[in-house]
Amino acid sequence: MDSTLLAKIHMVSVMIFLLIYVVKTVLLFTSRAKLDSFTKVFKVPEMIVSFLFLVTGSWLFALLGGIKVFHLIKLAFVVLSIPLAIIAFKKYNKGLALVSLLLIIGAYGLGEMSKNKAFIPAKVVVANDDGSQLVTGTRTFAANCAFCHGTDGKKAYRAATDLTKSTLDAGLVQQMVREGSKGKMPSYASVLSPDEIVAVGAYVQTLRSAQQLSQ
User: How confident is the model at residue 215 (pLDDT cuts 50, 70, 90)?
Assistant: First the structure.
């Protein structure tokens, strides 16, 4: 499945999942009878939404092959919130229900915040590393950029630019790496050294050149 479509399904399922939990928490504080009725009616839809939420999220992580610090905290929040919610609504425990809801909201917020954060670099070893700019660019790109762009530049994860078709020169690529693109590509200014950013800019040009030679 296309990662962009998968991400949309995930986001919709997250929003519905969150809405169901908000409604159930409000009903727990206001009317147990209405909570029981709501739970009975929406039991199956809630199971379907929960399944989509977890499966699409896991699928996206699998396609991406990388993770961010905020992703790790988000996963911890989600894993903790689900059993707490089950106990809370079964035992009519308002405190646990509120904690569970706050954890889910926090997980959603962390997911949004992570968009502008860099990935935890992959461990990459390049054979015959002579310290040249090309080798540095190759290693740095594979460790930090290949999650979304792929090692060949064509992965296009969640509509990431196909770098073999990019028209940006090395200087503009360096600027993009340093500053990022709000809501889409994170800034790597605090992650990569100036020399690494220059090397990545030069390496991206080789991806386009390689594509042109293969045509």
Answer: very low
Q: Is residue 144 part of a domain?
A: yes
Distance CA 71, CA 26 (A): 28
Write down the pLDDT at residue 112.
83
- List Cα–Cα distances, 177 to 54, 61, 117, in angstroms: 31, 22, 12
Domain count, the chain: 2
**Mean per-residue pLDDT for 87-116?**
91
One-letter-per-residue 3-state SS of 103-130: HHHHHHHHHHHHHHCCCCCCCCCCCCCC
**Domain limits for position 184:** 133-214
Q: For the whole prediction, is pTM greater than 0.85?
A: no
